[in-house]
Amino acid sequence: MGRESNYENGMYQQPMEIMGRLETVEKDSAQKIDTLNKRIATLENENLVLKKENQLLKDDNARLRGIINNNSSNSSLPPSSDQKGGRPANTYNSRPDTKRKAGGQKGHKGITLTKADIEEKIRSGKCRHEVCTLGPKKGNRYVTKYVIDLKAETVITEVRIHEDEHGKFHIPPQYRSDVTYGENVKALAVSLYSEGVMSNDRIAAFLNAAGGDVLELSEGSIYGFCKKMEENSAKIIQQLEAELLTRPVAATDATTVTVNGAQNYIRNFSTADTAVYHAMSSKSIDALKKIDFLNRYSGLLLHDHETALYHFGTGHAECNVHIIRYLHKNTEETGNTWSGEMISLLCDMNKMRKTLMEQGIAGFPEEEIRKYEQDYQDILAKGRKENRKTHHKHARSDESVLLNRMEKYSRNHLLFLHNFSVPFENNISERDLRKVKNRQKMAGGFRKESGHKMYCSILTIVETLKRRKMGIIENIRQLFMGAPAIF
Length: 487
Description:
Layout: H1 2-68, E1 83-84, E2 87-88, H2 115-124, H3 183-194, H4 200-210, H5 219-244, E3 249-259, E4 262-270, E5 275-280, H6 285-289, H7 292-296, E6 300-303, E7 315-318, H8 320-334, H9 338-358, H10 366-388, H11 393-408, H12 410-413, H13 415-418, H14 427-432, H15 434-442, H16 449-467, H17 472-480
Parallel strand pairs: 3-6, 6-7
Antiparallel strand pairs: 1-2, 3-4, 4-5
């Protein structure tokens, strides 16, 4: 009995030991599995975070690539910012080499002065005619050659003011000082300041050298001439703005300048015969309200989608060259086709309009306008569909903004279809602001707000004189003498 009992106990203990071991293994396995599950969950969370970060980096990379690829054809950047071959685009001509010799080509009308031109100038009395004789005089035969040149010399005029019958001297205001500078020097200085894009010290140095180092002009003298020009221009600028008020369409744009290191603006209003400039501290509605012309203007404003300007005037047209740049950019970033089709449609409409205008036709037939407008809306609808499939978040967002803008302001973009007096683009105003950018680059910004305003007054006179094909220096000279410079 003892042996059987021990045997049974042994048989019982073995399974119990095995079961105990199994329980231990199961506990260890459960702990390991739990640890592995936690590790897997942690890795999955890290993977989700990394995926989000990766997507953010991809989107940011697409955004930065879009910014780097901005140029004058797909954004508002100037051509000077274009980079080709590591050089600014304006340092060389990008046209393909034609292998032809440099200079005027066959059939090109030259502009060389002829004898007939010179003889007409002599008869007009505008030029001093001098005769120089070469060789021995044998008979009356000679050959005539002309040399056209410019002589700069300093002239000192002594002004003698005699007393009246009562022994009093009536001295005109311009002669209150014992020594003053004449209108010719002042006109040349103002012209160099505006057209020459020169700083005051360089203008003084140039005129002193041209006058044989007798004038002794200073930087302050040049500033005084320009300040006097501003004062004498005030009534003429009021007259020009009064003329602009009668124009049905006025183009406007603004560009940045620096005043004492801070960003400011110069805004212009341009028509075919007038250009008026205003100094501004910002492009806000409050700053625009300070321009008296804008508060009184009841015509149509043509601009580059400045929404603040929609509070002024009675109508608005959007510059289509401006929107075409953004359409180009959209095509590059998204690869979608609708933006290219919209460019083609806008250009085709403008081309057809030019053809009709050349034929003396005043407008499109109503049916054709409706067709063009429907094509415009159809392309926008196609753009909506393509936008939903645009891959990059940044590009998709920008494309959506562009579509919304073109739909909301469709009437303003297509106004040139309905009214042939409305230009297709705002290029006239943008060209008028290039002088401002040249000055900013060459002569720097302005030290004071007064200089900022003075420059706008001078530029208004000079650019309007050019627009009306009137002599710049002679009319500035007349203005210093108190005579009307623009009519």
